[in-house]
Design a protein that fits this description.
It is a single chain. This protein has a single domain, classed as TIM Barrel (Alpha-Beta Barrel). Helices cover about 40% and strands about 15% of the residues. The protein is built from eleven helices and ten strands. The structure holds S-adenosylmethionine, 6-(5-methyl-2-OXO-imidazolidin-4-yl)-hexanoic acid (DTB) and iron/sulfur cluster. Iron/sulfur cluster binds near residues 52, 61, 100, 102 and 132. S-adenosylmethionine (SAM) binds near residues 59 and 222.
Length: about 325
């Protein structure tokens, strides 16, 4: 049964279940609701990198931090198309374009992004964007251009949010998600662990996600990638076991969502990742880079799929609309 009324106490009890028992429960639910032979393969491309006015403490693209990234303006459509084509040939079925913007503005750059969305959609891939905040009309324009999904993360709990970002509010984030949902675009929304949050904060973030009017269609779970020059560079590395616990809890709360093992894979072995798939993850980002940081190569992922007997989920596979 898909529930939207999980309580904090129930989520806490699930999250604190002894690890192997938790993985077993999550794996059972995963088998009931998903095809466990399939993993969705998404590729990210940063179409506009760095120079962002926001102060997200984890992010190498915020202009106010001195990080070593290759800052560039909006890429040309033909460069985006050739990377999307390469990703498609490598087995990717979803292509996600990210821009270091606080929000979408109604200007020529947005028109160019709409054109990129149209082009990638014509390749037969699910197109996703992550461009910051947007209003309902902008969400509608993206949908009309062929956008399939929009990524906009809550990142952490409402209480911990202001320790991490001060230049926008949690409610701004929720409003964008509502605008995306109303435009009929698939919602991709998750968070990051390792931002100095407590276990209660993680539980509270999962509570917010699982209480949304519909569960997000995909839930990315990121481990903080600690980047030199950002305020969070000296935080301890996320414990792998915490990733497993988060993934398993997410799977139990939102059985029909795609749960994405996102940032952090570059530091995981194949057996670590296998345990995450067992615990309910069924989506990954492929390609040498996420947005600005490293990720396993297409070849390494291909080997992992062979070894684990996994196959990429086909594009536009029916997910019962509004079901979750
Ligand atoms: N600027 C847009 C926004 O913030 O919505 C889109 C791009 S932003 C880089 C997309 C997401 O990447 C963030 O919400 C965050 O969850 C994730 N992210 C950014 N830096 C990260 C890091 N160092 N480690 C893990 N996840 C990160
Ligand atoms: C998400 O949840 N993770 C991706 C995607 N959505 C946009 C981004 C991870 C970024 C990691 C840091 C970087 O590469 O810059
Ligand atoms: Fe800008 Fe997005 Fe990075 Fe925040 S996460 S600084 S909004 S690019």
């Amino acid at each position: 049964m898909i529930r939207h009324d999980w309580t904090l106490e129930e989520i806490k009890a699930i999250y604190n279940t002894p690890l192997l028992e938790l993985v077993y429960r999550a794996a059972s639910i995963h088998r009931e609701y998903q095809d466990t032979a399939e993993v969705q393969v998404c590729t990210l491309l940063s179409i506009k990198t760095g120079g962002c006015p926001e102060d997200c403490a984890y992010c190498p693209q915020a202009a106010r931090y001195n990080t070593d990234i290759n800052v560039h303006g909006l890429l040309k459509k033909e460069d985006v198309m050739s990377y999307a084509q390469k990703a498609k040939e490598a087995g990717s079925t979803r292509f996600c374009m990210g821009a270091a913007w606080r929000e979408v503005r109604d200007n020529r750059d947005f028109d160019r992004v709409l054109d990129m969305v149209k082009g990638v959609n014509e390749l037969g891939m699910e197109v996703c964007c992550t461009l910051g905040m947007l209003n309902e009309e902008q969400a509608k324009k993206l949908a009309d251009a062929g956008l399939f999904a929009y990524n906009h993360n809550l990142d952490t709990s409402r209480d911990h949010y202001e320790e991490i970002i001060t230049t926008r509010t949690y409610d701004d984030r929720l409003q964008t998600l509502e605008n995306v949902r109303k435009a009929g675009v698939s919602v991709c929304c998750g968070g990051i662990i390792g931002l100095g949050e407590s276990h209660e904060d993680r539980i509270a973030m999962l509570w917010t996600l699982s209480s949304l009017p519909s569960h997000p269609d995909s839930v990315p779970i990121n481990a903080l990638t600690r980047v030199k020059g950002t305020p969070l560079e000296h935080l301890p590395k996320v414990e792998f076991w915490d990733m497993v616990r988060m993934i398993a809890t997410t799977r139990i709360l939102m059985p029909k969502a795609m749960v994405r093992l996102s940032a952090g894979r570059a530091e995981m072995s194949m057996s670590d990742q296998a345990l995450c798939f067992m615990a309910g993850a069924n989506s990954i980002f492929t390609g040498e880079k996420l947005l600005t940081t490293g990720n396993p190569s297409f070849e390494e992922d291909h080997m992992m799929f062979e070894l684990l007997g996994l196959k990429p989920r086909e594009a536009f596979k029916e997910q019962e609309a509004g079901c979750c």
